[in-house]
Amino acid sequence: MNEMVQKVRASFLEKFGREPVLISSPGRINLIGEHTDYNEGFVLPGATDRAIILAIAPREDDVCRFHAFDFNQDFSTTFDCLQKSDLHWPDYLQGVLAVFLQAGYRIRGLDLVFGGNIPIGGGMSSSAAIEGGLAFALNYLYDLQLDGLTLARLARQAENDFVGVKCGIMDMFANLFGQAKKVIKLDCRSLEFDYYPFEWEEVRVVISDSLVRRALATSEYNLRRQQCEVGVNLLKKYYPEIKNLRDVTLARLVAHQTELDPVVFKRCVYVIKENQRVEQACQDLLRQDLFSFGQRMYESHLGLRNEYEVSCRELDLLVESAARVEGVYGSRMMGAGFGGCTISLVRSEAVGSFTEKVSADYRQASGQEPAIHVVRIEAGTHVIQ
Ligand code: GLA
Fold first, then answer.
1. Which residue owns the Cα nearest ligand 1 atom 1?
2. What is the pLDDT along the chain (385 residues), one digit of tens a residue?
C-alpha cells in the first residue's frame, strides 16, 4: 500500500473508527482532441498514476460525512439537504449523490475521506476523479450492477447539473475506462472506443503545471459551448442533417463564413481541424511516428491559442519553452485552458534538461516556478485490495 493510501486510510480510521473500502481514482491526460468532446468529436485521453484515494464506508441512515484530507476540511449533510457549498469540493460528491438519488438508485449515506496527488484545478481533471470515484464506489458498495458507461454518464451529469460546468464526457470516461500503457480513442458521439498502445521506453509524458488558476474558466468554457452551438444552428438551416460540429466540413463552414460572427467562425474552424488532427494522430501512433504526432500537438496548441482562445500567456510560455528543448516531440496546453497544465512528449534522456530549461524560462518570464511531473499511464478507477 503506498504512502498516500495509508495516510487516507489512517485519517478515515481516526475520524470514523472503522475499516473503509479504498478506491483509487486517477486524473487523466489527453494527448490530443481538446474541446472536441462536447462537440461529439474525438479525444485521445488516458488515466494516470496521479490519483485521488477515496476511503469510504456506507451508513444505515442518510447522513453523509466527508473529510478532505489535503485541505483538512470537513463537511456533512443529509440526502434532503444536498446543495452547493462555499467550500466547492463537497459539490462534486454531493452532485454524484444527487444524480444517483434522482435516477432512483437505492443508496444510503456514507462516511468518506479523500486525498491525493492530482494537481487541483490544473487540467488533469481532479473533479472527474472525485465524481468518477464516488460513482464507482456507490456501484460497488450497493451492488447496483451499473456498467462503466452508465457510471461515466452519471458522473458527467453531476458535473453538468449540480456543479454547473457543461463539460463533455472525456474526463469521466478516461477515469473509468483507463488501462495501463494505453490511451483511448473515444468517439464522443457513439461512445465507441479503441485502446491504442502507448508505451515507449524512450518517451515520457511530462505535465508542466503553470500553477495559474483562473476563475473565469467555467464561464468561458460554457461560452465556448454556446458559440459552437450558434455555428451549428446556422449551418443546420442549410444542411438539416447537421446535428453537431462533428458533421460540419471545413468547406461548408467556409461557404457560410460571411453569415457567421467572426468569433463563432474561428471557434468552429478550430473544432473541425482538431477532430481531423485526432484522426491523423491515431494513424501516427499506429505507425509509431512520434515526430508527426508531436507536430500535431503543436498545431493543436496553436489552434487553442489563436482560434479557440482558451490558452493564456503562461501556457504559451511553457509550450514555447518546451519546443526549444532538444528531445521534445510535441507540447500543448491540456484540458479546458485559462491556466492549468501543458502536456509534452519528451525523450527519456531529455527529461532532465526539459525540467531545467522549462523551469528557468518560466521563472524568468513569470517570476514563478512551474510544477513539473512525469506521469505514467495507468489503470482507471479500481478498488485497492
Ligand atoms: C474539461 C472538460 C472536458 C473537455 C476538456 C477540454 O476538461 O471537463 O469535458 O471538454 O475540458 O477538452
1. 336
2. 599 999 999 999 999 999 999 999 999 999 999 999 999 999 999 999 999 999 999 999 999 999 999 999 999 999 999 999 999 999 999 999 999 999 999 999 999 999 999 998 888 999 999 999 999 999 999 999 999 999 999 999 999 999 999 999 999 999 999 999 999 999 999 999 999 999 888 999 999 999 998 876 788 999 999 999 999 999 999 999 999 999 999 999 999 999 999 999 999 999 999 999 999 999 999 999 999 999 999 999 999 999 999 999 999 999 999 999 999 999 999 999 999 999 999 999 999 999 999 999 999 999 999 999 999 999 999 999 9
For the chain, where do the domains classified as CATH 3.30.70.890 start and end?
203-375
Residue 280: all three cell numbers together: 491523423
In the reported structure, the alpha carbon of residue 215 is separated from the centroid of ligand 1 by a whole-number distance in angstroms of 15
CATH number for the domain running over 2-199+379-383: 3.30.230.10
Using a 6 Å CB cutoff, which residues line ligand 1? 34-35, 37-38, 125, 167-168, 170-171, 335-336
Q: How many A from CA of 155 to the centre of ligand 1?
A: 14
175, 380 contact by CB (below 8 A): yes
Quote the pTM value.
0.96
Q: What is the DSSP string of 138-162?
A: HHHHTT----HHHHHHHHHHIIIII
Question: CATH 3.30.230.10 spans which residues of the chain?
Answer: 2-199+379-383
Cα(35) to centroid of ligand 1, in Å? 6
The ligand 1 atom at the shortest distance from the C-alpha of residue 30 is 12
What CATH number does domain 203-375 carry, 3.40.710.10, 1.10.10.10, 1.10.287.3240, 3.30.70.890?
Answer: 3.30.70.890
Atom of ligand 1 nearest to the CA of 37: 10
What 3 state SS string does 328-345 have? EEEEEECCCCCEEEEEEE
Which residues have a catalytic role annotated? 171
Q: Give the C-alpha separation, 147 to 342, whole Å.
A: 32
Q: For residue 179, what is its C-alpha cell?
A: 488501462
